[in-house]
C-alpha cells in the first residue's frame, strides 16, 4: 500500500509541475444547502429536496431524487484526498455530476467544480488535485452522458 501511495504522490507532484494552476474564480457563486440521504452499500447519495445553484448569471435546478456517487474518488486515493462522501465535497460533486448529465461544456464543468470546492472551504491543494483528476479522468463519464443525450429524440 505504501508503494501505491508513494507512486500517487510522485504522480501528483509531476502533475502540479506540468499542468498550469486552474484560474481563480471570476464569477459570483451561490450554492444550495443540500438535503440528501446516503446509501453506503450502494455508494450513492440522493437529494431529498430540490436544490438551486447559481454560477454568475447561470442558474439551474437539481430536482429531488437526483442520485450521484459523491466525489468519485477511487478507494486507493481516500487516504490522500478523503472519502467521496465527506460533507465538504458533496455540493461540488452533486453540481459537477449534474453538469455532466446536462452535457455542459466539460472544461467549464470541471472548472466550476474546482471553484465550488474552494467556495466549500476545501483546501486549495486538495481542490487542485481533484480538479486535475476530473480533467484527466472525467472524459469517460462525460462521454457516456453525451452518447445518452445524442441517442434521445424529441418526439
Question: Could you walk me through the main structural features you see in this protein, from its secondary elements to its overall organization?
Answer:
- This protein has helices at residues 2-18, 87-101, 106-119, 124-137, 139-150; strands at residues 29-30, 36-39, 44-47, 51-55, 58-62, 67-68.
- It is α+β, with helices and mostly antiparallel strands and 155 residues long.
- It has one domain.
- The strands form two sheets. It has a three-stranded antiparallel beta sheet with strand order 1-4-5, with helices on one face. The protein has a three-stranded antiparallel beta sheet with strand order 2-3-6, with helices on one face.
- A hairpin with a 4-residue loop joins strand 2 (36-39) and strand 3 (44-47).
- The radius of gyration is 16 Å and the shape is globular.
- The termini are far apart.
- 25% of the residues are buried.
- The mean pLDDT is 84.
Describe how the helices and strands are arranged:
Blueprint: H1 2-18, E1 29-30, E2 36-39, E3 44-47, E4 51-55, E5 58-62, E6 67-68, H2 87-101, H3 106-119, H4 124-137, H5 139-150
Antiparallel strand pairs: 1-4, 2-3, 3-6, 4-5
Helix pairs in contact: 2-3, 3-4
Offer a quick outline of the entry.
Helices cover 46% and strands 14% of the residues.
Q: What is the N-to-C order of secondary-structure elements (H for helix, E for strand)?
A: HEEEEEEHHHH
The largest pleated sheet is described as: 3 strands, antiparallel
Extract low-pLDDT stretches: none
> What is the rounded distance between the termini?
53 Å
The largest beta-sheet arranges its strands as 1-4-5
Helicity, as a percent range: 40-55%
